[in-house]
Amino acid sequence: xxxxxxxxxxxxxxxxxxxxxxxxxxxxACLLGETCRYDGASKASPGVIALAADCxxxxxxxxxxxxxxxxxxxxxxxxxxxxxxxxxxxxxxxARVLTAEQGLDVTAAFLRGAAxxxxxxxxxxxxxxxxxxxxxxxxxxxxxxxxxxGDGVLAALLVQAGVVCTTDEELAAGRLQVECPG
Length: 182
Prior knowledge:
Helix 4 (107-120) packs across helix 5 (153-160). 26% of the residues lie in helices and 27% in strands. The protein is an alpha/beta fold. The protein has one domain (3-179). The chain has helices at 46-57, 67-70, 87-91, 107-120, 153-160, 168-172; strands at 3-7, 14-18, 24-28, 61-65, 80-83, 96-99, 124-129, 140-143, 146-149, 164-167, 176-179. The protein is built from six helices and eleven strands. The protein has a four-stranded parallel β-sheet, sandwiched between helices. Strands 1-2-11 form a three-stranded mixed β-sheet. Strands 5-6 form a two-stranded antiparallel ribbon.
């Protein structure tokens, strides 16, 4: 079972998440080097790649997801942003996801992809997501053309399901420590 604790010191609190063998960790595919981003690139994070390898060796199941690809969007594809609210609002039908340049509505693909990614990640105790993404952003994402407080569509769905979520930036900044057995 994942155990969380917080350490406080002269700097911001550090969250510590400890995994046991057999537990599940979900990770945004682009952070592991998969070329699945809208621009055809990845956002490979050496720290996330090393963590995934350590966790796999320790018997933790690493679930790799790209909700936009799972929703049927190609690579590359037009960039997108949330309009009218964040991912929570999109899940409840109060916001949409639009392509950046043409304003095409791709909400259905984002919702479908978030649902498929969430299903694949079922039982995950932690998800490490790509910061500021309209799918995976946590705490802030692009809404109505500007970076604003809110979660992406998949992040919102995972948060609502009770999955502990964080971003690659939180991990890189040292505000999260993940420990795998072994």
